[in-house]
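Hi support team,

I submitted a single chain yesterday and got back a structure, but I'm not sure I'm reading the token output correctly. Could someone confirm the output below corresponds to the sequence I sent? I've pasted both exactly as they appear in my results page.

Thanks,
R.
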Amino acid sequence: MPEQAAFGQIPEGQRRADYKNLDTLLRRCGVPLFDKRRMMDCFWPAQLLQRIMTRDRVVEELWEYKIGSPGSFHEIPLDALADIIMRHYRKVFAVLVLIGKGDLIQAAINEQWDDTQLPLLAYGPNNHLYSKKPPNRLAQCFERHDWKPVHRQLFAEYQYAVDPCIFTLEVDGSTPKHRVFHDKVVLPFTDEAERHSGGYGIVTKVAIHEHCHEFHALLQSINTDNSFARKQLMNDDAKEFEDEAAALRRFNGFGNDHMVTLLMTWTQHRSYNLLFPWAKCDLDNYWARDPLPIMDAETIVWTSKQVTGIASAIKSIHNPSRRNLQVPDDNKYGRHGDLKPENILLFDSPLDKMGILVVADLGLAKLNSIVSRSMQSNHKIPGTPRYKPPECDIEGAKIARTYDIWTFGCLLLEWICWLFQGQNNKALFIWQLGSLYPTGSIGDTFYSMDSQGNGRYLVTVKSKVLEKFAELHADEKCTEYFHDLLHIIEERMLVIRARSRVDSETLFQSFNRMHQKVLQDETYCYSPCKSSRKIGPQEPLDVEFRKTDPRGNQPR
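Hi R., thanks for writing in. Yes, this is the structure output for that exact sequence:
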């Protein structure tokens, strides 16, 4: 069997007769390295290195060197030398063994090149090795005549394999840490799969070796293993990375269970990376996987709980606490900017067998001064076209926190449509939203802009949206809870005039009261009923169409 196929074996199960030398054992028990661009095939976390390089095995290896070269290792007894290696030189000795230079450990000890000196820095075409700290002394023991540049190059590479990075939070246990990694630092990924590309980055499912991260307690809280989501930004824009990381630190799952938890950020190879727990799926995929959902009691209670939870996350984003701001000025507020089913993630939870939904992808989240009240120009506003509110298309209109209220309303209406009528009818509803847009294209927004022939437009909620509200109210599955939910969406969220929409605090309080009633009143929750409440149409808004589209181009 090829040696490569033997990676990952258990050190304690290896007898002396099973391996030729310590080099063989190290490779046999190493963790396969997923990054195939490296010179080495595997890496060794500190705990694994301790299990492989026991004192007895180190002594055995030293005896082999002494037998092969009787004049060597005469300065101190081998047992004493092994003790020194075990205390201070385990990593250095492992690297020397792996590159076929283990017999030089005595010289390294004489010059005090212990584990704390790693990594050594390689300079010049001959890869001379120097200490990382000034005055950058030269490692003379690696300049011997039998050391060629390739040996020093191998040392420079393998030293990172015995010291892979450790992913961890800051010492407070809730603040994501940022690291700048040298290009040669080994990222301890043991697997990589399910790459997803989006407008803001590439998300990859990665497995991290259990000894190379300190997120075990957090992973237990969401019933997952060592799987994570690694997000790499599409470009090397440092400001974009810093903005997203800052937003995720402010609006983090440590402060609200329904917001995604940023674990760590790092840069390497001019690549900007963020690390999150791996979700089961997003809300859009959740709907697609269950095209005809069953409206049982458990589903209704769970839906109410998650709707309330998402509302609490939006409230936290809109009104971040002083702690989340991490600045002395609490006159700040936030806006998500791209709420949609794809940005709502489902995680397992030990507290709910159906899982928990969290708000993710805060790449568009903005934090603004209360002085401007989020009144940002609608020029160059990114987001998802279907869910954008009318103010994105109104000349002179400003973008405020109410942007998120509209998009959340769109999401909730689709959610109830899926729950009552199934995935196919939800897809049909979205298709029916298509109508002529002022630019001449077809748009599937939830509002329409009807030309008045004088450069002015009347903005209204689309008739297909109003028809869908009526359909859902009339559905035989509709209980008093869902009537109330639909009324809030229609009357308070999908409102053409932004200033007339409900604020996130009031919305959360309303949903929370409804959820408490769901838990206490079975009739409210489970019993289908008719709604006697009639809602009149909203008054159209007479506007001028924006002169510049959200990407900064002139409308066609």
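A quick pointer for reading it: DSSP finds 17 helices and 22 strands in the chain. Let us know if anything else looks off.

Best,
Support desk
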